[in-house]
Specification:
CATH superfamily of the largest domain: Bira Bifunctional Protein, Domain 2
Number of domains: 2
Distance between the termini: 48 Å
Number of helices: 13
Structural class: alpha+beta
Oligomer: single chain
Number of strands: 15
CATH class of the largest domain: Alpha Beta
Strand content: 15-25%
């Protein structure tokens, strides 16, 4: 969430960002009026607390008078009433703050998703390719029918060559991120509502929620390792000298894929469960823009070594979501559909998530401030397999192994 003082001092920017992101129900005027009310109540509470302490001091050292006892009781009752008012208005403010998205950077394109701007492209797009689902089904490498039988639609089994390919992609991605200084981590597959909402995802009660919740528990299945990684340093203070911290979290990801009507959903491209290797960083505020470019650069290295054409787009404000101040998407060229399709992303969330999970840095001068957090996909395995099959499967039924994966598969083709 954003700091209420930042909102007050940058009201136009906050309102502009919310509007551009499509948050039509954000009422900054009402929020600031609530905060003004909070300040007035807090002033009364502090005065009553002072009076309570003064009265208590007078009662020491002897038997207090009836008037003093009566005065003390009246102050106590008034204080209880005002403290309840303060708690109620603070709860309202916190609820309103959760509805205010992060600001957007100046170089973010304005408008809806289609206004996203291509930054650069790499590779020569192929003019034809092999449909991944037909190919994998034909070789008995994927089984959606039995997946649906045991878990429902859009769940699946990977078998044989495709399961081996997934493992090779993970090993390749893991080698790449550790070479760049990321600490490999496995993470919990569930998080609490505080962590979930701290990441900027919709709460349990939201109709737009994409998460699977555990009934009668304050837990949700994670949609990405970004969630548990955001909570890793929750309620902690990190020394300035120890930043930045780079983590690579591997996990299963669970998504309802709510609101995906009209998007490409064939086969493995959009499923309810998949595995992913996620990059994450906690850093100083002045480091985050540079680190954002670093994470993007690692994503590009991965796809260049896999030899799959792609382009990078600077995501328009209307498609950013609540936490990100800026986001890049890497889209691969699909020779089957003859267009670029979403594959990975990387986001600079500034202090938006850190404030919610209370992760701060202690500066060398002893002062405290919130860190910045960033995340980026190293390898999203289901979609990566789609891209590899489309670009490397041959019409004679073979799969050429990309050079980068041969050390992990030990063969030239599958």
């Amino acid at each position: 969430m954003l700091d209420i003082n930042f909102i007050r001092e940058n009201r136009e920017l906050v309102e502009h960002s919310a509007k551009e992101k499509g948050y039509k129900n954000v009422d900054i005027k009402s929020l600031l009026e609530l905060d003004d009310n909070r300040k007035e109540i807090l002033k009364d509470v502090e005065e009553l607390r002072k009076a309570r302490n003064e009265t208590a001091a007078k009662m020491k050292g002897g038997k207090p008078s009836e008037d003093l006892i009566k005065q003390g009781k009246e102050i106590k009752e008034k204080l209880a009433t005002e403290e309840k008012k303060l708690e109620e208005v603070e709860d309202k403010i916190n609820l309103e703050l959760k509805s205010v998205p992060n600001i957007i950077f100046e170089d973010v394109p304005l408008g809806p998703e289609e206004n996203s701007v291509e930054v650069r492209k790499w590779g020569e797009p192929k003019k034809e390719g092999v449909d991944h689902l037909d190919y994998a089904t034909g070789r008995d490498w994927v089984d959606f029918e039995r997946g649906a039988k045991v878990a429902g639609s859009k769940f699946y089994y990977l078998k044989g060559g495709l399961a081996l390919l997934e493992n090779a992609l993970l090993q390749f991605g893991l080698k790449k991120v550790t070479e760049h200084g990321f600490t490999f981590m496995t993470v919990p597959d569930m998080v609490s509502s505080r962590v979930l909402e701290g990441c900027g995802f919709n709460p349990r009660t939201s109709d737009q929620s994409d998460e699977y919740y555990i009934e009668n528990e304050d837990l949700a299945m994670i949609a990405t390792a970004e969630m548990p990684l955001t909570g890793y340093h929750m309620d902690e203070i990190i020394d300035e000298a120890d930043l930045p911290k780079f983590y690579a979290g591997y996990s299963a990801c669970f998504r309802k894929e709510a609101g995906t009507y009209g998007k490409y959903t064939r086969g493995l491209f959009r499923v309810h469960q998949f595995n992913k290797l996620e990059m994450y960083c906690f850093c100083l505020p002045e480091q985050s823009k540079e680190i954002h470019e670093k994470i993007l650069g690692i994503e590009e290295e991965i796809w260049q070594e896999l030899g799959i054409p792609y382009h990078i787009i600077n995501i328009a404000a209307g498609d950013l979501g609540a936490p990100a101040a800026k986001k890049y998407d890497l889209e691969y060229w699909s020779p089957v559909n003859q267009k670029y399709q979403e594959l990975t992303s990387c986001s600079n969330c500034t202090d938006f998530q850190a404030r919610s999970v209370n992760c701060r840095v202690r500066r060398k001068d002893g002062s405290l401030e919130f860190v910045h957090t960033l995340n980026g996909t190293a390898i999203s395995l289901a979609r990566t397999m789609v891209a590899v099959l489309e670009n490397y499967a041959t019409k004679d039924g073979k799969l050429k192994v990309p050079e980068a994966l041969k050390p992990y598969l030990g063969v030239d083709e599958l």
